[in-house]
Amino acid sequence: MVDKVKVDRRVIKTKKAIHQAFLALFYTKNIESITINDIADLANVNRGTVYLHYSDKYDLLDHLIAEHIQNMIGFCNPDSGARMRDELTPLFEYLKENIAFFTAMFATHKAAVFRKHLTKVISVNMKNKLDRNLGTKTEISNELSAQFMTSAFIGMIEWWVEQGMPHSSEFMAIQLEKLFEKNEKILPGVLGK
Fold it and tell me: Does the keyword Glycoprotein apply (predicted)?
């Protein structure tokens, strides 16, 4: 049992080093110019170790994106009845704790890949919430409402990260909640109050 724990810790440590190396390279280089050797050298592992965990650099990027999006979604419980700010504050804290990842993902020429994945996951979750809370009683399509809210939400996150997180997580959560409240006539019942 002790050996398994040691192996697991080593694997976690190795993967973390690979992730950090990849993000450092991704922030400064185009993904096409990054090689597995670059990642391995910066992570201080051999290239076989990288291939042990990921089939290629695109697989590594997909894993990182999926992991962070899943973690982000985990902060939002649409059925909790909690105020939006109470759900968003820990989400903004998560963004702050993982600044290297989000800065790399929102860098101008790389934002499209991450934004596409994030938009898909959030808009599907938002539409499901709208469908549950609103049914078909509104004049505006739930799908279009979900896209509107998703774009606004991601835009705020992207701005906050690109500006170097000039406001606290709590301030951002409150401001985002207030912005959505302004549109509550359009989107009643979505804020989980």
Answer: no
- Maximum C-alpha span of the chain: 61
Interval 33-85: pLDDT, tens: 999 999 999 999 999 999 999 999 999 998 998 899 888 888 776 556 677 78
Residue 19 · residue 64 · CB < 8 Å: yes
* Helix residue ranges per DSSP H, 54-168: 57-74, 84-97, 99-106, 111-134, 142-162
CB of 23 within 8 A of CB of 101?
yes
* Cα(84)–Cα(70) distance, integer angstroms: 18
Q: 8: which 2 tokens?
A: 């697991």
Estimate to the nearest angstrom the gap between the alpha carbon of 181 and the chain centroid. Answer: 23
